[in-house]
Automatic annotation (TrEMBL), chain A:
It comes from Astyanax mexicanus (Blind cave fish). This is Proteasome subunit alpha type. One of its GO terms (biological process) is ubiquitin-dependent protein catabolic process. InterPro entries: Ntn_hydrolases_N, Proteasome_alpha, Proteasome_alpha-type, Proteasome_asu_N, Proteasome_sua/b. Keywords: Acetylation, Cytoplasm, Nucleus, Phosphoprotein, Proteasome. It is found in: Cytoplasm; Nucleus.
UniProtKB/TrEMBL annotation, chain B:
It is an enzyme of class 3 (hydrolase). The lineage of its organism: Eukaryota, Metazoa, Chordata, Craniata, Vertebrata. One of its GO terms (cellular component) is proteasome core complex, beta-subunit complex. SUPFAM superfamilies: N-terminal nucleophile aminohydrolases (Ntn hydrolases). It comes from Astyanax mexicanus (Blind cave fish). This is proteasome endopeptidase complex. Pfam families: Proteasome. Its main location: nucleus. GO terms for biological process: proteolysis involved in protein catabolic process.
């Protein structure tokens, strides 16, 4: 559903006659143009997967990361304008650090999500600034509260999720995520499924090469957010590629 | 001073003298300040400073618990006091013993010293009279005491301190904090147990 907001879309401090703030909606379009990122919460942790499009063969492998560490126990996967996302990751880090300084313990994820969401929302109120052009998914695991997953979008809303997707293939990714029984899965099982979903939603025709970024936080990492180790990642990618081939094969048989 | 054990019970107790120089201005002051529903502080040092700091901490913790939609952790309360003590260490002369109960770790005891050090301990003693009872406390404390054992340990320790310290005395205030709630116990000076120092 796209419409032109002629005249009412020049600044974030203007409503349209039908009650929309077009600048915020345009910011969300920026997120939709970016490649996909997903986060899924399972029984004992949270797994993030990002389809990182490689625009040039000259890029060093692993550069332009889209998954950030916010404090030891929180991970953040982003989609949209990467520069905006980096700036927000610094905001999140500062919030987490100040909390720890004042209260002596890890920041609860809901509180962090609320604080960063409030910050994002503030940029939707004034004509002097533009809204942030990125959405992000925050995840953590705690012995007492268990695994948690929150998503914040450019309007400054945060929701808690069992599974969510942001970026160009978010609809397709959501469909795949809904098929999973994530509440009964462990992180190790989920890592493979996340890799598979990213491979499924990646559009071979429109976007050529991509790098898969995988990270997790949970009992398996003792509560620390880390990139998935190389061997487990390779196993997950192999599973993903094999599953795709199987589906291709079964399509051929049907013909 | 505060013993602590596995039943979530934490007696706090302190003596109740307030001094202006060498003059005892009050013998019944309550040095146990409630900073949240199930978190109390024993104050020591300049009572004016201690009251100002605990007032600020109480406000901050109230705000914090509303934001978190949950009671604060005892660690968080102690941390708030520590930040106030450490950042204003040049101006302040107040130390605290913070103790309470929270859902995550149960009963806990933290010491915040005058300069702003924060440590967690199974039990702790403080104040001018504490110097006389280090031996008693170290010898008689055992982990996982019952409520009655705890109250007895505390009362005995305080009585011995009062007996030897000329600036300790008055009334003994104790607070027992458990998962179910908070109970105040007050023992006037003449009802304290008798030992061989008199």
């Amino acid at each position: 559903m796209s419409s032109i907001g002629t005249g009412y879309d020049l600044s974030a401090s203007t409503f349209s006659p039908d009650g929309r703030v077009f600048q915020v909606e345009y910011a969300m379009k920026a997120v939709e143009n970016s490649s996909t990122a997903i986060g899924i919460r399972c029984k004992d942790g949270v797994v993030f997967g990002v389809e990182k499009l490689v625009l040039s063969k000259l890029y060093e492998q692993g550069s332009n990361k889209r998954i950030f560490n916010i404090d030891r126990h929180v991970g953040m996967a982003v989609a949209g304008l990467l520069a905006d996302a980096r700036s927000l990751s610094e905001v999140a880090r500062e919030e987490a650090s100040n909390f720890r300084s004042n209260y002596g313990h890890d920041i609860p994820l809901k509180h962090l999500a609320d604080r960063v969401a409030m910050y994002v929302h503030a940029y939707t109120l004034y004509s002097a600034v533009r809204p942030f052009g990125c959405s992000f998914i925050l995840g953590s695991h705690d012995e007492d509260d268990g695994p948690q997953l929150y998503m914040v979008d450019p309007s400054g809303i945060s929701y808690g999720y069992w599974g969510c997707a942001i970026g160009k293939a978010k609809q397709a990714a959501k469909t795949e995520i809904e098929k999973l029984q994530m509440k009964d899965m462990t992180c190790r099982e989920l890592v493979k499924e996340v890799a598979k979903i990213i491979y499924i939603v990646h559009d071979e025709v429109k976007d050529k090469a991509f790098e898969l970024e995988l990270s997790w936080v949970g009992e398996v990492t003792k509560g620390r957010h880390e990139l998935v180790p190389k061997d487990i990642k390779e196993e997950a990618e192999k599973y993903a590629k094999d599953s795709l081939e199987e589906e291709d094969d079964s399509d051929e048989d049907n013909m | 001073e505060i013993p602590q054990h596995s039943l979530p019970v934490i007696p706090d107790s302190t003596t109740s003298l307030a001094l202006s120089g060498s003059y005892v201005s009050n013998k019944m002051i309550n040095k146990l300040i409630q900073v949240h529903d199930k978190i109390f502080c024993c104050i020591a040092g300049s009572l004016a400073d201690a009251q100002a700091v605990t007032k600020m901490a109480k406000f901050q913790l109230s705000f914090h618990s509303i934001q978190m939609e949950a009671p604060p952790l005892v660690k968080a309360a102690a941390s708030v006091l520590k930040e106030l003590c450490y950042n204003n260490r040049e101006e302040l002369q107040a130390g605290f013993i913070t103790a309470g109960w929270d859902r995550k770790r149960g009963p806990q005891v933290y010491t915040v010293s005058m300069g702003g050090m924060l440590i967690s301990q199974p039990f702790t003693i403080g104040g001018s009279g504490s110097t006389f009872i280090y031996g008693y406390a170290d010898a008689k404390f055992k982990p996982d005491m019952s409520r009655e054992e705890c109250l007895q340990f505390t009362t005995n320790a305080l009585t011995l301190a009062i007996g030897r310290d000329n600036v300790s005395g008055g009334v003994v205030h104790m607070v027992v904090i458990t998962e179910d709630g908070v109970e105040h116990v007050v023992v006037p000076g003449d009802k304290l147990p008798k030992f061989h120092d008199e």
